[in-house]
Specification:
Radius of gyration: 17 Å
Number of strands: 10
Distance between the termini: 17 Å
Structural class: alpha/beta
Bound molecules: 3,4-dihydroxybenzoic acid, fe (iii) ion
Strand content: 15-25%
Shape: globular
């Protein structure tokens, strides 16, 4: 049977991708950000999964205001990096896992979560920046990836509670797949940031640290935080954090091992947070 071995949480700031692609990761501004992922890149080599189930949000790249799925699962065999205005990032194409993705879709939809099935899409910084942070600049990504897009861009967005329960349904789906695959679930986006309006630039370190503490030790309680609290405390784009609860919900009910924790401000307009939790 397949099993979930670990979960990874990280911000996805697009400027991080640009810094890496343009060879600026050693500059004084970026050096402390990338340093926080030195451990993670080594950890990825030592804990190479067979598949990454990558929860992220699309930023009006694959989807637009014309069509807004709340939860969309990628069942394609590959995904091209999107052109987000400066040309597509010079990163490898993302290879999918149609068999496991279809199995998860079947199981999770029959478990009463309405997923949109996506057989063709491009992926933006929400998905490629976490891969770059965790894997560096390889010729090919280390394993297949199942993209799982969550709408946190256009209201109404799903609640943390629903995201957490969905994570549990994903765990059940993975554990009923009849092949001995090691699967990691990644929750991406966040932490506190607001990109527009009078509060643009908002960062809330206290909220972020408490979020990390509770994600580790009290995910059930954290899942009850209403979306308005994310927006008030962590900024309009801080709502991206509900996606971390999907990954956390997919973990075992036993307390996880905290393999790595990192927090840094600033990176572009965003507080960068990062956790690696292992199932024990
Ligand atoms: C920034 C952060 C984001 O999450 C995003 O999607 C775009 C920009 C930023 O910090 O600049
Ligand atoms: Fe974003």
């Amino acid at each position: 049977m397949a099993r979930i071995t670990a979960s990874v949480y990280t911000s996805h700031v697009p400027a991080i991708g640009a810094a890496l692609d343009l060879g600026k990761s050693g500059e004084p501004y970026w050096q402390p950000v990338f340093k926080g992922y030195d451990f993670s890149k080594q950890w990825m080599k030592e804990h190479k999964p067979d598949v990454i189930f990558l929860v992220y949000n699309d930023h009006a790249t694959a989807f637009s205001l014309e069509m807004i799925p709340t939860f969309a699962i990628g069942t394609a065999s590959e995904y091209a990096p999107a052109d987000e205005g400066w040309g597509p990032r010079p990163v490898p194409k993302v290879i999918g896992h149609p068999e496991l993705a279809s199995h998860i879709a079947q199981s999770v939809i029959q478990d009463d979560f309405d997923l949109t099935i996506v057989n063709r899409m491009e992926v933006d910084h929400g998905l490629t920046v976490p891969l770059s942070l965790m894997c560096g600049q390889p010729q090919a990504w280390p394993c297949p990836v199942i993209p799982f897009a969550v709408n946190v861009v256009q209201y109404p967005v799903p609640s943390g509670r629903r995201c957490y329960s969905l994570g549990r349904a994903i765990r059940k789906a993975v554990e009923s797949y009849d092949e001995p695959l090691k699967v990691q679930v990644w929750g991406t986006g966040g932490m506190s940031h607001q990109l527009q309006g009078p509060r643009a630039g908002l960062i809330n370190k206290e909220f972020d640290h408490r979020f990390l503490d509770r994600l580790i030790a009290d995910p059930e309680g954290l899942s009850r935080v209403p979306h308005i609290e994310y927006v008030r405390e962590a900024g309009s784009e801080g709502i991206e954090l509900v996606m971390w609860l999907i990954a956390r919900g997919a973990m075992s009910d036993q307390p996880p091992r905290v393999a790595h924790r990192f927090y840094h401000v600033p990176a572009s307009n965003t507080a960068v947070g990062h956790l690696i939790l292992e199932n024990t």
